[in-house]
Specification:
Length: 197
Amino acid sequence: MTLRLGLTGSIGMGKSTTARLFAEEGCPVWDADAAVHRLYAQGGAAVAPIGAAFPDAITDGAVDRGRLRAITAEDPRALGRIEEIVHPLVAQDRAEFVAAQGAAVVVLDIPLLFETGGADGMDAVAVVSAPPETQRARVLERGSMTEADFEAILARQVPDAEKRARADYVIITDTIEHARAQVRAALDDLTRRQRHA
Protein backbone atom coordinates (compact mmCIF):
# COMPACT_ATOMS: atom_id res chain seq x y z
CA MET A 1 0.00 0.00 0.00
CA THR A 2 1.28 3.45 -0.93
CA LEU A 3 0.93 6.14 1.73
CA ARG A 4 -0.07 9.60 0.46
CA LEU A 5 1.78 12.36 2.30
CA GLY A 6 0.32 15.80 1.65
CA LEU A 7 3.02 18.49 1.70
CA THR A 8 1.90 22.06 2.21
CA GLY A 9 2.94 25.38 3.69
CA SER A 10 2.33 29.07 3.28
CA ILE A 11 4.19 31.24 0.78
CA GLY A 12 7.91 31.63 1.50
CA MET A 13 8.14 28.74 3.97
CA GLY A 14 10.50 26.57 1.89
CA LYS A 15 8.06 24.04 0.48
CA SER A 16 9.84 23.62 -2.87
CA THR A 17 13.12 22.93 -1.09
CA THR A 18 11.41 20.45 1.23
CA ALA A 19 9.79 18.67 -1.72
CA ARG A 20 13.27 18.30 -3.22
CA LEU A 21 14.55 16.81 0.06
CA PHE A 22 11.77 14.19 -0.03
CA ALA A 23 12.70 13.42 -3.65
CA GLU A 24 16.35 13.01 -2.62
CA GLU A 25 15.18 10.41 -0.07
CA GLY A 26 13.60 8.43 -2.91
CA CYS A 27 9.98 9.61 -2.69
CA PRO A 28 8.09 10.31 -5.91
CA VAL A 29 6.79 13.90 -5.68
CA TRP A 30 3.65 15.13 -7.43
CA ASP A 31 3.45 18.93 -7.78
CA ALA A 32 -0.03 20.49 -7.99
CA ASP A 33 1.28 23.69 -9.65
CA ALA A 34 3.15 21.67 -12.29
CA ALA A 35 -0.01 19.63 -12.94
CA VAL A 36 -1.97 22.84 -13.60
CA HIS A 37 0.77 24.01 -15.99
CA ARG A 38 0.47 20.71 -17.90
CA LEU A 39 -3.32 21.01 -18.04
CA TYR A 40 -3.09 24.62 -19.32
CA ALA A 41 -0.39 23.94 -21.93
CA GLN A 42 -1.09 23.22 -25.62
CA GLY A 43 -2.89 19.89 -25.80
CA GLY A 44 -3.64 19.99 -22.06
CA ALA A 45 -6.96 18.61 -20.84
CA ALA A 46 -8.11 21.99 -19.43
CA VAL A 47 -7.69 23.97 -22.67
CA ALA A 48 -10.93 22.93 -24.40
CA PRO A 49 -13.29 23.26 -21.40
CA ILE A 50 -11.79 26.59 -20.28
CA GLY A 51 -11.89 27.80 -23.88
CA ALA A 52 -15.58 26.88 -24.07
CA ALA A 53 -16.35 28.81 -20.88
CA PHE A 54 -13.92 31.71 -21.42
CA PRO A 55 -12.85 32.02 -25.09
CA ASP A 56 -10.70 35.09 -24.32
CA ALA A 57 -8.51 33.02 -21.97
CA ILE A 58 -6.93 30.98 -24.80
CA THR A 59 -3.80 32.15 -26.64
CA ASP A 60 -2.02 29.97 -29.23
CA GLY A 61 -3.90 26.85 -28.15
CA ALA A 62 -3.02 27.20 -24.46
CA VAL A 63 -4.65 28.76 -21.41
CA ASP A 64 -3.19 32.24 -20.85
CA ARG A 65 -2.89 32.60 -17.05
CA GLY A 66 -2.60 36.39 -17.31
CA ARG A 67 -5.88 36.62 -19.21
CA LEU A 68 -7.48 34.18 -16.79
CA ARG A 69 -6.44 36.43 -13.86
CA ALA A 70 -7.92 39.46 -15.66
CA ILE A 71 -11.20 37.58 -16.21
CA THR A 72 -11.46 36.60 -12.53
CA ALA A 73 -10.63 40.17 -11.47
CA GLU A 74 -13.55 41.46 -13.56
CA ASP A 75 -16.02 38.71 -12.65
CA PRO A 76 -15.83 37.25 -9.12
CA ARG A 77 -18.01 34.29 -10.19
CA ALA A 78 -15.49 33.24 -12.86
CA LEU A 79 -13.08 31.74 -10.31
CA GLY A 80 -15.68 29.24 -9.12
CA ARG A 81 -16.38 28.18 -12.71
CA ILE A 82 -12.65 27.74 -13.42
CA GLU A 83 -12.24 25.66 -10.25
CA GLU A 84 -15.19 23.45 -11.29
CA ILE A 85 -13.32 22.71 -14.53
CA VAL A 86 -9.77 22.43 -13.22
CA HIS A 87 -10.09 20.71 -9.81
CA PRO A 88 -11.45 17.38 -11.16
CA LEU A 89 -8.71 17.35 -13.84
CA VAL A 90 -6.03 17.99 -11.21
CA ALA A 91 -7.50 15.23 -9.00
CA GLN A 92 -7.41 12.81 -11.94
CA ASP A 93 -3.78 13.74 -12.70
CA ARG A 94 -2.86 13.16 -9.04
CA ALA A 95 -4.68 9.79 -8.87
CA GLU A 96 -2.94 8.59 -12.05
CA PHE A 97 0.45 9.64 -10.64
CA VAL A 98 -0.10 7.79 -7.34
CA ALA A 99 -1.36 4.67 -9.13
CA ALA A 100 1.74 4.61 -11.35
CA GLN A 101 4.19 4.63 -8.41
CA GLY A 102 5.50 1.59 -6.60
CA ALA A 103 6.92 3.56 -3.70
CA ALA A 104 5.98 3.16 -0.03
CA VAL A 105 5.38 6.92 0.31
CA VAL A 106 4.27 9.35 -2.39
CA VAL A 107 4.56 13.07 -1.60
CA LEU A 108 1.76 15.27 -2.94
CA ASP A 109 2.93 18.90 -3.00
CA ILE A 110 -0.29 20.95 -2.73
CA PRO A 111 0.06 24.63 -1.74
CA LEU A 112 -3.62 25.07 -0.77
CA LEU A 113 -4.12 21.63 0.79
CA PHE A 114 -6.10 22.87 3.81
CA GLU A 115 -7.82 25.71 1.94
CA THR A 116 -9.31 23.29 -0.63
CA GLY A 117 -10.20 20.51 1.85
CA GLY A 118 -7.59 18.21 0.28
CA ALA A 119 -6.10 17.14 3.61
CA ASP A 120 -8.98 14.70 4.10
CA GLY A 121 -7.72 12.62 1.17
CA MET A 122 -4.22 12.19 2.60
CA ASP A 123 -2.84 9.47 4.87
CA ALA A 124 -0.70 12.12 6.62
CA VAL A 125 0.15 15.80 6.22
CA ALA A 126 3.52 17.55 6.54
CA VAL A 127 3.50 21.32 6.97
CA VAL A 128 6.59 23.34 6.06
CA SER A 129 7.15 26.30 8.35
CA ALA A 130 9.67 29.01 9.21
CA PRO A 131 9.73 32.01 11.53
CA PRO A 132 7.55 34.90 10.23
CA GLU A 133 10.54 37.21 9.70
CA THR A 134 12.30 34.51 7.62
CA GLN A 135 9.14 33.95 5.57
CA ARG A 136 8.73 37.68 4.85
CA ALA A 137 12.42 38.12 3.94
CA ARG A 138 12.35 35.14 1.55
CA VAL A 139 9.26 36.37 -0.28
CA LEU A 140 10.42 39.98 -0.61
CA GLU A 141 13.96 38.92 -1.67
CA ARG A 142 12.44 37.29 -4.77
CA GLY A 143 11.66 40.77 -6.05
CA SER A 144 8.48 39.58 -7.74
CA MET A 145 5.99 40.97 -5.26
CA THR A 146 5.44 43.93 -2.99
CA GLU A 147 4.73 43.90 0.73
CA ALA A 148 1.05 44.50 -0.12
CA ASP A 149 1.00 41.51 -2.52
CA PHE A 150 2.55 39.34 0.21
CA GLU A 151 -0.02 40.48 2.81
CA ALA A 152 -2.88 39.84 0.36
CA ILE A 153 -1.69 36.26 -0.27
CA LEU A 154 -1.24 35.62 3.47
CA ALA A 155 -4.79 36.84 4.12
CA ARG A 156 -6.16 34.15 1.76
CA GLN A 157 -4.15 31.31 3.29
CA VAL A 158 -4.91 29.33 6.44
CA PRO A 159 -2.61 30.82 9.13
CA ASP A 160 0.69 29.01 9.70
CA ALA A 161 -0.11 28.27 13.36
CA GLU A 162 -3.37 26.56 12.36
CA LYS A 163 -1.61 24.54 9.64
CA ARG A 164 1.02 23.38 12.14
CA ALA A 165 -1.70 22.40 14.63
CA ARG A 166 -3.46 20.27 12.00
CA ALA A 167 -0.28 18.61 10.67
CA ASP A 168 1.06 15.14 11.40
CA TYR A 169 4.59 16.45 10.79
CA VAL A 170 6.03 19.98 10.93
CA ILE A 171 9.23 20.64 9.02
CA ILE A 172 11.02 23.81 10.09
CA THR A 173 13.21 25.17 7.28
CA ASP A 174 15.61 27.31 9.29
CA THR A 175 18.59 25.38 7.89
CA ILE A 176 18.82 22.76 5.14
CA GLU A 177 20.42 20.27 7.55
CA HIS A 178 17.59 20.65 10.08
CA ALA A 179 14.96 20.35 7.35
CA ARG A 180 16.62 17.19 5.95
CA ALA A 181 16.74 15.60 9.43
CA GLN A 182 13.01 16.30 9.91
CA VAL A 183 12.18 14.87 6.45
CA ARG A 184 14.05 11.68 7.34
CA ALA A 185 12.32 11.45 10.74
CA ALA A 186 8.90 11.84 9.09
CA LEU A 187 9.72 9.11 6.56
CA ASP A 188 10.98 6.78 9.31
CA ASP A 189 7.72 7.31 11.20
CA LEU A 190 5.61 6.74 8.07
CA THR A 191 7.51 3.54 7.32
CA ARG A 192 6.81 2.31 10.87
CA ARG A 193 3.13 3.19 10.50
CA GLN A 194 2.99 1.31 7.24
CA ARG A 195 4.53 -1.82 8.74
CA HIS A 196 1.95 -1.81 11.51
CA ALA A 197 -1.02 -1.07 9.24
